[in-house]
Amino acid sequence: MTEKFVGYFRVIEACAQPGCPVCRCLVAESRAYLGALLYEQVTDPETRRGLRLSWGFCNWHTWMLPDVESSAFGAAILCEDLVTRALRRTQRRRRSRLGTAGRWLAALLGRRWRPTLVELHEGRAPCPACVDIARTQARYLETLVHFIDDAALRAAYAQSDGLCVPHVILAVEQGTETARVETLVARTREAWARIGRDLAAFIGKHDHRNREPYTEAEATSRARAFEMLAGARGVFGRD
Predict the structure, then answer these.
(1) SS3 (DSSP) at 189
(2) What is the pLDDT of residue 119?
(3) Backbone Cα Rg of the chain
(4) DSSP 8-state secondary structure symbol assigned to residue 236
(5) Per-domain residue ranges of the chain
(6) Is the distance from CB of 36 to CB of 72 less than 8 angstroms?
(7) CB 223 within 8 A of CB 164
(8) In sequence order, what E strands does the chain have?
(9) Confidence (pLDDT) at 212
(10) Cα separation, 182 vs 165, whole angstroms
(11) What's the confidence (pLDDT) of residue 29?
């Protein structure tokens, strides 16, 4: 990577917002992805096929649909198809249920019996929006690591809350530029230390003798700590 692409400038802009800058970028990218899909690909056969294989979007991306401007019609078209598929799948389960025979066969083979419907659901394809955002996430992290010593990005990052813990782990895991990764971690720790000091001040001002008001940084320290520890709401889903 020798040239700055649009993601570089988006990271710098995100550094001016509260929380993890990469999480901010991913939320914006997810909304843009869903907006493009709803406006341009609702009737596209490959798009519909992918959503059928994944049984729709994940929880995070499903509940992001109402945030996409003028999304009601396109979302309804997609959901109508997915509701029909869900009805068919559960109807087939009722007709093809093995009952006692299935349990007996599983025991004979030394396996735990699992209903076919459960196995089909667990074997579904990943959410297509998550697949797209995983690629985007990797590129944002690569950009941040590569340009960590760039003057503009360095200055912006110094004013941010730093990456969240999950994104630091991912940056370390995927980073090939070891020295720059270490620099990123060191500068992120400085941001985390600020959050820690703001939390301590917030806690200290709960003393009944205190008459000093909370600063904005202290008042928002809990939310900033939540995001630092776990990432932005919905970005990483559940374990």
Answers:
(1) helix
(2) 83
(3) 23
(4) S
(5) 6-230
(6) no
(7) no
(8) none
(9) 85
(10) 14
(11) 95
d(CA 81, CA 91): 15
User: What is the CB neighbour count within 10 angstroms for residue 222?
Assistant: 14
> 70: helix, coil or strand?
coil
Return d(Cα 14, Cα 22) in angstroms, integer.
7
In the chain, % of residues over pLDDT 90 = 72
- Taking Cα atoms as reference points, which of 126, 133, 134 lies closest to residue 57? 126
Q: 93 pLDDT exceeds 90?
A: no
Residue 106 amino acid letter: A
Question: Side chain identity at 128, as an amino acid letter?
Answer: P
Closest to 26 in 3D by CA, of 130, 125, 128, 127? 130
pTM: predicted TM-score of the whole model, two decimal places: 0.84
Distance CA 210, CA 145 (A): 42
pLDDT classification of 110: cutoffs 50, 70, 90: low
Instruction: State CA 170 to chain mean position distance.
Output: 13
The rounded distance, in Å, linking the Cα atoms of 59 and 48 is 18
- For 8-55, give the DSSP string: HHHHHHHHTSSS-HHHHHHHHHHHHHHHHHHHH-TT-HHHHHHHHHHT
Give CA–CA dist 161/21, Å, rounded.
Answer: 8
Least confidently predicted of 20-34, 39-53, 105-119, 167-181: 105-119
